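REQUEST ID: PR-0412
SUBMITTED BY: lab tech R.K.
PRIORITY: routine
TASK: structure prediction, single protein chain
INPUT:
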Amino acid sequence: MNTNDQKTTEQVLEPLLDEKAAARFLSVADGTPGNWRRATPPVGPPYVLVEGVVRYAPADLRAYVESKRRDPRTGANR
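STATUS: complete
OUTPUT:
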């Protein structure tokens, strides 16, 4: 295998984001991700608990945004 084909974990995984960074990523108020998480039933993007600390994976945030995309002609999800 070529050394260029080998990827380290650091190259594959993106750093996890805290709640404030996730809110900035989503362009919502700082407390919104926490409000979504504590809602009954919970809403919003998936999150990760790392030793009791909430973190968000950028890939999950991108997927969440994509899931909210609407077709303006029909109002339906794309």
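NOTES: Residues 15-67 form one domain.
REVIEWED BY: pending
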